[in-house]
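Pipeline run #58 for the internal structure catalog. This entry was flagged by the ingest filter as a single-chain record with no existing model, so it goes straight to prediction. Upstream metadata was stripped on purpose; only the residue string is passed forward. Reviewer on rotation: M.T. Logging verbosity set to normal.
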Amino acid sequence: MSYRNILLARADGVGTLTLNRPEKLNAFAGEMRREVADALDELERDDSVRVVVITGAGRAFCAGADVAYMAELVEKHDTTAMAALVEAGRRVVMTIRRSAKPVIGAINGVAAGGGANLALACDVRIASDRAVIAQSFNRIGLHPDWGGTYFLPRLVGPAKSLELMWDALPVDANECLRLGLVNRVVPHELLAETVSTYASTLAAKPALSISLTKRAVYQSLDHSLPEMLDYELDAQLQCFKSRDAAEGIRAFVAKRAPVFGV
């Protein structure tokens, strides 16, 4: 499938989706949201892809919505088109959350508005020291979307979430790390290498174990301890019956490195 506003690459078990409107700081406009969702679906169906990376071209991750486009909608009073923009975001973040594969956000610069919440939807975030995250919605009179009211309180708590959303100010990379919005911060020139190494490491791990662990962590947010113990039993038995578990256990006993996924 070909795309106008994004780039899609695959190598060594890693699929990389790059938002590609650098002249507009990768702001979403027109069909771009649909392209992102379609590309994520494509990577999910590709068995050769075991890990997904999302990043941006140029100096931004994603500046959120293209405000010039939204200005046109305001003038037309086009609430139908506005609703479609928000619903497209729903599809993207739900695809990430439901994916059986780890999704890594490589935050290379500004992540604002919907772009901030696209970053927060990723399972793990690695940020350049030039990155900033901004819940900038109320600066133009709008409400957080793309799952921000779900993801942010679970990362930083309700009070800090309200502060960040009400202030609508950019948070620099080191403060993002302190708050737990990102997993690590690296020098900008090392971001691509760091993300590639981490993604390749995950891609070499047993896919079923990685996938079921992702599902378990997210299910635990809404389930009881007895329910999670039941899930763990089922997941453990699924893994136990897999080829990767047999390989991992035999390799451990033989004191050699396991080779998963063969």
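catalog note: The first strand starts at residue 6 and ends at 11.
catalog note: The chain is about 50% helix and 15% strand.
status: ready for reviewer M.T.
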